[in-house]
């Protein structure tokens, strides 16, 4: 390879590295702003999750006090799952812009939190056999 070809190749390589670095920094900045907000259908519960999916805010309306503890717990979990879905959709949108639809994006999708099935309602007999936590 002649010296001119090597110099051109190196210049193009450095240009590509600079572009990849700028894209990675932009993706990182976008991902740091990811979050989700959700509210229960009747507004008893409102939640926010941050970029990592961690719960960052939880608000309970006065109507939440009327719910049984198990029903409130299920409602909180369902609302958090809704917020996680929103945050996950944002991550997929951001990463699609940077990596396109392909194996890298599939890796992102595969590593988003899996949705948990809602807990089955407890039967009255279950309560007496295993009362759980009473507060």
From TrEMBL:
Keywords for the protein's UniProt record, in alphabetical order: DNA-binding
User: One of this protein's Pfam families, by short name?
Assistant: YbaB_DNA_bd
The protein's name is YbaB/EbfC DNA-binding family protein
Q: Which InterPro entries match?
A: YbaB-like_sf, YbaB/EbfC
Give the organism, scientific name.
Amycolatopsis echigonensis
Magnesium in keyword set: no
Keyword rRNA-binding found: no
Q: Name one GO molecular function term.
A: DNA binding
Q: What superkingdom heads the lineage?
A: Bacteria
């Amino acid at each position: 390879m002649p010296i001119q070809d090597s110099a051109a190749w190196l210049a193009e390589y450095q240009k590509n590295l600079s572009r990849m670095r700028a894209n990675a920094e932009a993706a990182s900045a976008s991902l740091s702003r990811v979050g989700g907000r959700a509210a229960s259908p009747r507004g008893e519960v409102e939640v926010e999750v941050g970029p990592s999916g961690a719960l960052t805010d939880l608000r309970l309306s006065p109507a939440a006090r009327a719910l049984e503890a198990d029903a409130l717990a299920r409602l909180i979990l369902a609302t958090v799952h809704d917020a996680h879905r929103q945050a996950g959709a944002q991550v997929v949108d951001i990463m699609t812009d940077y990596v396109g639809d392909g194996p890298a994006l599939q890796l992102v999708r595969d590593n988003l939190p899996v949705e948990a099935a809602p807990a089955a309602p407890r039967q009255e007999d279950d309560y007496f056999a295993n009362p759980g936590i009473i507060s």
